[in-house]
């Protein structure tokens, strides 16, 4: 569905005018509303754990910046001398339908084919705690709880994962997504209707620096009518940390990319945002190569890219998430990745203050 919607946005616009998919969209929205209501009123039971659970999720298909936000949150929790555990599905990894545990500080080389790309990326950033992988997140948390002994659980992509009671819900929106797509699939790009925002405690709009203030204002107008209370509002951007090689060695500053010839390679949900990001720094993109989200690169893929790089006198540039899988195939020095971190434009102080309350910390933390 993710790839279908991404590739057929123009078709969706025309179908919307004809109302062809309206009944399907209504049915999809209704099912999700009923499901959420059943959990709210106790028809379906939630698992309750003895530590705070903070969810980071979204309403739309595709990337809104959940992984960088989880990393920001995990690093902040660790800075408060607390031990976080991240619960994540490990999408397309071999352990997705069973379970796996990634402890911070593990030195041996872990395989993204087993755990998935995002769990490895998150684990690599954590100096304390663990990442638990597997679709049945509540069962897996019970399985590993005594071993990891978390102070707080971070539920990755958790807004629709209602089986676990959470203390705080962070909902992400991608500022660059067209406003006409804020309708439930197949009319738009939402997997759940905006009415679900009644359960949001914080709204974070990512990539806010890539659109106009007018676009931000219109987005807030679109979603704010669905708030039942006033959630915290925050805007974020991605701060570039530089360009690194397959060994995670710093190679270039972002400013040094200007004029550099590069083949831009992505296997992420929002490839256009990555291309725009490189364009903004003046990269001379000789070719754009997009794979499906979470795609596992093969030796043939990488060899073909390296041949093209030689022919075009270019390097290969990918995201940090892609490099987790790319370096399993090749350690060629021409393959580089850009590293970024979440930076708040506004709303960070308010969000941290509320998180301190949830975690029973002093507000000045």
Q: Could you tell me the strand content as a percent range? A: 15-25%
The oligomerization state is single chain
CATH topology of the largest domain: Rossmann fold
Main β-sheet, in a few words? Answer: 13 strands, mixed
Number of strands: 13
Query: Which stretches are low in confidence, meaning pLDDT under 50 for 5 or more residues running?
Result: 1-12, 14-18
Overall domain count: 2
Note the gap between the termini.
Answer: 41 Å
Question: Helix content range of the residues, please?
Answer: 25-40%
Q: With helices defined by DSSP (H or I, 4 residues minimum), what is the helix count? A: 12
Helices and strands, in order, run as HHHEHEEHHEHEEEHEEEHEHEHEH
Q: What would you report as the Rg, rounded to the nearest angstrom?
A: 21 Å
CATH architecture group name of the largest domain: 3-Layer(aba) Sandwich
Mean pLDDT: 90
Query: Overall 3D geometry?
Result: globular
CATH class of the largest domain: Alpha Beta
Give the CATH H-level superfamily of the largest domain.
Answer: P-loop containing nucleotide triphosphate hydrolases
Protein traits:
single chain, 365 residues, alpha/beta, Rossmann fold, 2 domains, 12 helices, 35% helix, disordered N terminus
Description:
With 365 residues, this protein is α/β, with parallel strands linked by helices. It folds into 2 domains: 2-238 and 343-358, Rossmann fold; 240-340, Rossmann fold. 35% of the residues lie in helices and 22% in strands. It has helices spanning 2-7, 9-18, 22-40, 66-79, 112-115, 117-125, 137-148, 213-224, 271-280, 299-311, 320-326, 348-358; strands spanning 53-58, 84-88, 100-103, 130-133, 152-156, 168-174, 202-206, 232-244, 250-252, 261-266, 284-290, 315-319, 335-346. Strands 1, 2, 3, 4, 5, 6, 7, 8, 9, 10, 11, 12 and 13 form a 13-stranded mixed beta sheet that branches. α4 (66-79) packs parallel to α6 (117-125). The longest helix has 19 residues, at 22-40. It is globular. The N and C termini lie far apart (41 Å).
